[in-house]
Design goal:
Chain lengths: ~200, ~100
């Protein structure tokens, strides 16, 4: 079906305001690299709290760098449940299914500990897949499809081949660096394409 | 052959001339897809000069289609613009009418 012009403009504006500057990718990458480092030194359980700081940090960077170039637009609040929310719910249900399956198939306490670790990573990867699947459909972006592919490889290898922690650490590190590089590339492209609009109110 | 979905016929005179002007149509479209936006966003999206944009915004404000909100952020003036309910309805009506006219011709 041919896309309505209003929907197309709405999606373009949303993409420009939320993703074009590369800050989202940089933050995702940074988060994964930090998690990998925390796993490496053995304090992984606190890594998730870093997430709380990220939205404020992104907004602060956008106020200084993004909005003086492309302006600020408050996007409409779509109250109806979007396809993205459904994709997220489906991903969550699959993740819960995987969790139950792994718990049911593990026997010893050592195996159970390893399984719990894989469960945590599995849930994490599933949430990423849900988000990236939605983003790739909404913005028709090939880059997020590549990320989705990485996430699928991650969960497959982690769950099926019962890998150890070092594999997960290195995979997260690699995935994080990939996001960081792509985000920085997008930011440089953005800065070159959009100069600051001087004296604009 | 006449399309039954078209309903009542409409003439060019019924097209809203305030919105029909290309620059204002562009402004209305980019405001329609957001809740509110600042002046820089409109300069960036429409490609109009600041002076030109101000004139068109004034015209839209006089007709009650947009609301212009002035504020200060760190002592720097910041202008926010949003479509009024009347502006939103008029834009939807314009879209409907122009499609009808195009289908008729």
């Amino acid at each position: 079906m041919k896309e309505d012009i209003i929907t197309k403009v709405k999606n373009d504006v949303a993409f420009e305001q939320k993703h074009k500057d590369g800050f989202s990718q940089i933050m995702i990458g940074l988060f994964m690299v930090i998690i990998a480092l925390f796993l490496y030194i053995g304090i992984d359980s606190y890594a998730v709290f870093i997430l709380i700081l990220f939205p404020g940090l992104i907004e602060s960077l956008r106020k200084r760098i993004t909005y003086p170039r492309i302006g600020y637009a408050k996007l409409e609040d779509n109250r109806k449940v979007s396809s993205g929310v459904w994709a997220f719910i489906v991903a969550l249900i699959i993740a819960v299914g995987v969790v139950i399956f792994v718990i049911e198939t593990s026997n010893s306490s050592l195996e159970q500990a390893a399984a719990q670790y894989r469960i945590l990573m599995g849930v994490f990867a599933m949430l990423i897949i849900g988000f990236l699947g939605y983003a790739s459909i909404k913005y028709k972006s090939k880059a997020v499809m590549v990320y989705g592919g990485f996430a699928i490889v991650f969960i497959t290898v982690t769950l099926i081949f019962k890998v150890d922690q070092s594999f997960v650490t290195w995979f997260l590190f690699g995935f994080g660096v990939l996001n960081l590089v792509y985000g920085i590339y997008a930011l440089i492209k953005f800065l070159k394409a959009y100069p600051v609009l001087k004296d604009a109110e | 052959m006449q399309n039954e979905d078209i309903g009542s016929e409409i003439s060019f005179e019924e097209i809203d001339r305030i919105i029909h002007e290309p620059a204002r149509l562009n402004i209305m479209l980019y405001l329609y897809v957001v809740e509110k936006a600042d002046f820089v966003y409109l300069v960036h999206k429409t490609g109009l000069t600041k002076g030109n944009l101000s004139v068109h915004l004034q015209k839209l404000e006089q007709n009650g289609y947009v609301e212009i909100l002035k504020e200060f952020v760190n002592r720097i003036p910041h202008t926010l613009v949003r479509l009024t309910q009347r502006g939103r309805t008029s834009f939807e009506q314009y879209k409907e009418n122009i499609l009808k006219v195009l289908q008729q011709t």
